[in-house]
Amino acid sequence: MLKIDGISRRFGDVTALDDVSLEIGQGEFFALLGPSGCGKTTLLRIIAGFETPDAGKVTLDGEDLLSRPPNRRPISLMFQSYALFPHMTVAKNVAYGLEREKLPRQEIKQRVGEVLETVGLSAHAARRPAQLSGGQRQRVALARSIVKRPRLLLLDEPLSALDKKVRADMQLELKRLQHEVGITFVVVTHDQEEAMSLADRIAVFDRGTVRQVDEPISLYERPRSPFVADFVGANNLFSGEASGLDGIKSEKFGMLAGTPLEELEAGAGALLAVRPEKIELADASATRGLAGEVLDVSFYGGVSHISVDVPGHPKPVLVAVQGAASVRPGAKVKVRWDAEDAVIMAAGQ
Ligand code: ATP
């Protein structure tokens, strides 16, 4: 539905986007995820029409978007700051865009009523923004974005101004809403948990390029580059040389078991990534595993995080277990994992 084809944009000597191509389907909830400065907002602004690319094409249902001014694109953009009019009521804020389009009064009233119902704010229609909570203001901004029935809704860090609890509620709300209205959503975020919980598919950006486009679970379980492995969730990364189909050869530890995602030339630089929850803590006397000493144990309610100093490994190995941990700092242990739970990829990018 939305096709981004070879988009590049430079600002002086900064390359904000370098030949980015993506295809986003009708009704999809799609996330652009990456660290600050990787170019995701620039791409959103190009789609919306507030920025012009140096090269590339953007089409929506086969129609060229770039030649149209922002107000002639069937797109709404929702910013991080909600930009509500403080002196207008909730209903007026939502009606504003439709009034500008000079729709009949009755139709405006009906559509505003419907959309306030959808976001659960019917009872607050007569309030002003200052009389609302952060989460409610967020809903007004959403209502205002969808009341115009855009084909595409772009959201720039939509939840970053909310505190943690409200944010979790709004994540659920956004998902429900997207499902209900059936509009294609493209959200920009630097928060990988948010992207994973919201999106059907995620594009991971790194310095102006797309590293991987996948469903959340595949990004998590099958990262295809060290960047993605490190950026999406916590990972333990071990470096070594590619060696056959069942592991890497590490200078410090010998063979480390893992599963390569693609064929790597024997001897080539490789990285093995294993998630904290896939690591098992064994007794120091166990025959298999890397010997280490527990540095720290933190309990987070449902899970505990244990960091283990493994001599020869540059960072503590992070282990996650369900519930309370049975080890204490100072304990001698071995860390180990099953080959199918560790992913091997080419080192470098
Ligand atoms: P953030 O999450 O911090 O907003 P981002 O991933 O959205 O980051 P962009 O805002 O797209 O990143 O910026 C990408 C790069 O382009 C950055 O290095 C930024 O400084 C630069 N950049 C963006 N807009 C401009 C501009 N108008 N003029 C000059 N440089 C810009």
TrEMBL record:
Its EC number is 7.6.2.11. One of its GO terms (molecular function) is ATP binding. Coiled coil: none annotated. Residues 2-232 form the ABC transporter domain. It catalyses: ATP + H2O + polyamine-[polyamine-binding protein]Side 1 = ADP + phosphate + polyamineSide 2 + [polyamine-binding protein]Side 1. It holds the Pfam family TOBE_2. The complex is composed of two ATP-binding proteins (PotA), two transmembrane proteins (PotB and PotC) and a solute-binding protein (PotD). This is Spermidine/putrescine import ATP-binding protein PotA. The lineage of its organism: Bacteria, Bacillati, Actinomycetota, Actinomycetes, Streptosporangiales. The gene is potA.
